[in-house]
Every structure is written in structure tokens, then in C-alpha cells.
């Protein structure tokens, strides 16, 4: 779609709102669309694509444009990402901006520092190199600049994957099975899946393959008592409920009643009746403590930087500092310690984050083992293999976009022994 002065103005406005960081970028874009309902489908797609392209490549585009103003960043994206000619963009800009377009086309990114080229803050680029080495850090950074695919999970309480896949194909939706998650389907494009019959009647839910695999580390069974300790909007809760075949008792805890309210419509579609959402005051809420020593399996998908989801949420890399990540890791350790009271002897505790950093993964898990002798580590690879999921990542589950094609995740599994 060729840019027009009006389309350029809308894109700049939507980007400016997203860059204020008052909320998630997708919420800012959605708010702009609600305020401008006359925008057509193609216009909305162009605006959203451009906003997220800028957020992914904000640092290199700022170097190209010589400015971090939303308008300059959008112009740089039109030239360097969308590939419009200088002449095509010149037709919709102010006279004084036309010379800048030629400059944007000519900038050589290869002479800029690597952190700028890879569109990461200096501290995050340095951290990735320190943890993974330069080659692996480069592969990860490049993978995070790609848009993520849309994965859905088949609700096995209502349907089988093969049947849903065939049905999607009959509606012209190109889709394949996910390589690892046994209930996952990967869509080749991004249709309006929330209007598809399979979604509306609860046979599928949008859920990244990595998130689906976390539920298989918990491996909930029929008739058990299970807790999703940081349930949020309940994506993993619903996956666990389907695994349990709607039996037993599944608690969905969260300290945010607002986040937890997002579970309500999804739960209604799912057909599950064994899920019990509870908004906690803190992780030490008495309602959680009353379950101490009674629970078969507990999932702690703890609040984190979300750096494993940068393909979907590129604004996160500009939101968090190194100090913020350290504070988050300390919070994760506190939440994990509180949740560790719940499993009975022989019960399983799973700690997970959607981060690619050791500080929010291995470091938290190893510190937990050092301070909680009543727990021993389990092998995530062995847990998955027992479910015929051949994914060898070692004792801990470590998923990366460049290797596994899904969001970045970490998981550690523990068993209570005393």
C-alpha cells in the first residue's frame, strides 16, 4: 500500500502513542484504531505493521534518521524497511524533508556499533554475548527482528488436532502442525482467527508453541489438584485443564484481578468446569496458604522482562533496564518461594519465565535449590520424553526463537522430597 499524507499522519500518531510506553504497544495501536473507526482494513494493517517495524528496529532507524522523533522514524522505515523509493515518499512529505530521505537511503549501517545494528540496548547486547557468545547472541538478536508466527492450541477436551487442521484447510487457512507441541497448529499467515468457528466454539486458543510446552512440563493428570500460581489471562490454565480432562481441581491464581478477568470468556468457550479463578492480595494470601502441602502440581510462570517475546512485543526491549531485570529476578525468587509451600511430598513445582536471560532463569532456579533442601531438580527433557515429545534441551527447558521457532522460554521442574 503506497503511503499518503493521511496514512503517514495516522502512522506517526499511532507510533507516538506507543513510544510513550504507557501500556503495551498493541494496546496503543488498538486505541488509535478505536478512535479512528473510518480507517479501512488495509490502512490498519499498514499502520500496525509500520509501528511494530519501527519498534523492532528503533535504534538503527534512529541512527539512519538522525532523530528519534516518531515522524523521522516512520520515514526511515518507509525507505529502509518497506523499501519505498525516495521519489514515492517525497510525494507525501514536506519540502524540507526531501533531502533527509536521500540521506536515509545512503546511511551504511555496517559501520555502526553492533548493538545499534542489532537494535538492542547496549546492556542487553553485552549481556547476551556474555551468556551465549557473540555468534549465538547475533543469531538470537536477528531472530528477534522477525515477526512471530501465529500458533494455536487445540482444546483436546473438545476436538482432535487432525480434525481441526483439516477444517482450517477447508476454509482456506494455510496451517501446519507445530514441530514439538502435540496439540499445536501453526498458521502460515495471520487471519482474523478470533472470528473463526473453531475459535468461537472453544476448540482452539491462540497460544505460542513454547507456552504450550510449559504445560507439558507440568504434565497435569486426571483427578489431581493443580495450581497455576501466576495465571494472568489463563492460557496455560486452559491447557492444563484440558490435560486433566476437566477432572480434579485447577486453581488459577493471580494478584491482578484485571488480568485474571481475561480468563472468563476463554473459560466459557473452553467447556471446562474444573477451573477456579482466585484473585490473591499478595503471593502470601491466606487462601493460597491454606493449600500448603496439598497440591499435586504447581506452575509458577513468573512476571519477567518478556525478552523471549520480542518478536511480538518489541517495545519491551526499550522498557526495561539491567536494574529492572535484577528487581524482577528478586521478585521471581520471592514468588517461587511462596508457591513452594503448596506441593505435597512427591508433588511437582515448575518455575518458568518468557525470558532469554540467565538472571531470570537458571540463576533463580539454582538459587532456589540451594535454599530449599526439601526439593530436588527434575529433568525437563525426561519429562517431555515420557510424553513422546523429543526435545532435548537438558535438565532445564530453554527455548529460543532461532533454534525452536517459538518464543523464548525457560523452565525448571522440581519435586518435593520432604
Topology:
Elements: H1 5-19, H2 25-35, H3 41-56, H4 58-65, H5 70-80, H6 86-90, H7 98-106, H8 114-117, H9 122-132, H10 134-143, E1 150-154, H11 161-170, E2 175-177, E3 184-187, H12 197-200, E4 204-206, H13 209-218, E5 225-228, H14 235-243, E6 249-254, H15 257-261, H16 263-270, E7 275-279, H17 286-289, E8 295-301, H18 316-319, H19 322-339, E9 343-353, H20 362-371, E10 375-378, H21 380-386, E11 397-399, H22 401-404, E12 409-416
Helix pairs in contact: 1-2, 1-3, 2-3, 3-5, 4-5, 9-10, 13-14, 19-20
Short description:
By secondary structure, the protein is of the alpha/beta class.
Describe the structure.
- With 418 residues, this protein is an alpha/beta fold.
- The chain folds into 2 domains: 5-112, no CATH class; 209-416, Vaccinia Virus protein VP39 (Rossmann fold, 3-Layer(aba) Sandwich).
- 46% of the residues lie in helices and 15% in strands.
- It is built from 22 helices and 12 strands.
- It has helices spanning 5-19, 25-35, 41-56, 58-65, 70-80, 86-90, 98-106, 114-117, 122-132, 134-143, 161-170, 197-200, 209-218, 235-243, 257-261, 263-270, 286-289, 316-319, 322-339, 362-371, 380-386, 401-404; strands at residues 150-154, 175-177, 184-187, 204-206, 225-228, 249-254, 275-279, 295-301, 343-353, 375-378, 397-399, 409-416.
- Strands 5, 6, 7, 8, 9, 10, 11 and 12 form an 8-stranded mixed beta sheet that branches. Strands 2-3-1-4 form a 4-stranded antiparallel beta sheet.
- Strand 5 (225-228), helix 14 and strand 6 form a beta-alpha-beta unit.
- Helix 1 crosses helix 3 and helix 9 crosses helix 10 (134-143).
- The longest helix has 18 residues, at 322-339.
- The mean pLDDT is 96.
